[in-house]
Amino acid sequence: MSDTLPSIGEMLSATVPMVRTLNLEFLEATPERAVLRLPDQPDYHNHIGGPHAGAMFTLAESASGAIVLAAFGDQLSRAVPLAVRAEIGYKKLAKGTVTATATLGRPIADVIAELDAGGRPEFPVSITIQREDEAVTGEMTVVWTLRPNS
After folding, report:
1. Which Pfam families match (predicted)?
2. Of the candidates 114, 118, 59, 65, which has an alpha carbon nearest to the alpha carbon of residue 90?
3. How many domains does the chain have?
């Protein structure tokens, strides 16, 4: 984004209180991928000393929101992005700092074409959660829609 417009991380931090609460760090936010990090914070640990499942869910969902804004931010004047459903699988014990990497599951042009045709497109975003040693601790899919403005 330009020097005069806020970054996606700044926009999400300003509009989504949980992003600020968890101190999520935006490492990358492009239409191709978004990467966010959840620092190791004892206040958000679970009973075994790792990040709480809810904190990891929020990290992954926020990464999905960042890529949606990067990919479809130019459509906000005519449609609002909304999460439709999400599914997460916790694969391995997470300890320390964790990172979520999101990728779109449908071509941007196809989603916009469906919106142009008067539809309410849905599209998946896949997110991988990893520890610092790159072990995958979780995988999540969030299905988003672009709801046309009335």
Report:
1. DUF4442
2. 59
3. 1
Does the predicted model carry a pTM greater than 0.85?
yes
Instruction: Name the residue with tokens 């004047």.
Output: 77
Asked if the structure places residue 102 within a domain, the reply is yes
Span 106-118, pLDDT tens digits: 999 999 999 999 9
To 5 degrees, how large is the angle CA 125–CA 85–CA 23? 65
Residue 88, domain extent: 8-148
Q: What is the pLDDT of residues 72-125, one digit of tens each?
A: 999 999 999 999 999 999 999 999 999 999 999 999 999 999 999 999 999 999
